[in-house]
Amino acid sequence: MTTRLVITGVGGFGRTHLENARRLEAEGRVEIVATVDPAVPEAYGSLGEALAKHPADIVIVATPPHTHFALAEQSLRAGADVLLEKPPLPSLGEFERLLALEQQTGHVVQVGFQSLGSHAIEVLQHDVAAVSATGLWSRTNSYWTRSRWAGKRTLDGRPVVDGVATNALAHAVATALRIAGYDRPGFDAAAMTVEVDAYRVNDIETDDTTSLRVTGPGMPTVTCALSLCAPPELVERTDHAAVVQVTSPQASAQFSYTTDVVTRGDTHERFGRTDLLENLLDHRDSGAELIVPLHSTAAFQHVLEALRVAPPPAAIPARHVTWHGEAGDRHPIIADIERLAHDAAVSGRLFRELPAFT
């Protein structure tokens, strides 16, 4: 029997999920029985309305972070498995409640950290001494005005936590944590220490530039240095824009998680990637192990929680920033941000320990 699929949020990033689902529908693996998005005329206005008319086996939740728990809960209670877009939940409390709902309903949640489907990760996980991630992207004013929840810590009394480490470059954090083993079975994420050092240039509530450090008993240190205020041309250099550096006693490797390329010295190797929806289908059909089960994102959720409860991000002094472009295309560039991020990641220090932005 073909798996019945409902997709929420098709007017935003959910379009990517819709295109992927159409590919699988053409292969006969799924049937898209409904789409949900109040802003899209041909879609249902609510998930409840769609599920009342179209029972589903899988619901893809690709909506704003503060809506994730309610929609995932509704899906699980309706008898569906869930592919939940990242970041999974905007608070640790909601994460723990959703874990309990999985147990109660007997259905599963796969989290949409697509980079964790890369076949390179298994190769990089051996004999790790330290892991660091750098993410240097550029975002314009229009990015922060794209919706009511963009750049917010809370909205209408609910946590959102839409910052650089928790959303835009969340894959950098999640990938580094996985390679370092912080999601391995038996590891208690509550035992790890998360130090955050958050800043902002834009007029937002959350961070657009952040360093963080994660340590755990007997675990490699993970350091991340991330910014959405980098020169736009860096994004075209995919080997520098978003990478995870893995250090081991024998050698070091650099993983471009957006391209699945691992670099060791002058050697570049491209790896394949397993699609997370296909993996969820295989789990349902044959019991294949989920690549990103909800419980495996506990370490990431603890990082998000640390940022959620931290003091508001510090404003970076104007002398460190130049602005370019006009209106919606206007964007900031932090002076020397590429070097600062590299120094933080390589040394394992936070921005304030370099020091930066003084």
TrEMBL record:
The record's annotation in Pfam families points to:
GFO_IDH_MocA
Write down the InterPro entries for this protein, in alphabetical order.
Answer: Gfo/Idh/MocA-like_OxRdtase_N, Gfo/Idh/MocA_Oxidoreductase, NAD(P)-bd_dom_sf
Q: Which Gene3D superfamilies match?
A: Dihydrodipicolinate Reductase, domain 2, NAD(P)-binding Rossmann-like Domain
What are the Gfo/Idh/MocA-like oxidoreductase N-terminal domain coordinates in residue numbering? 4-113
What is the protein name for this chain?
A: Gfo/Idh/MocA family oxidoreductase
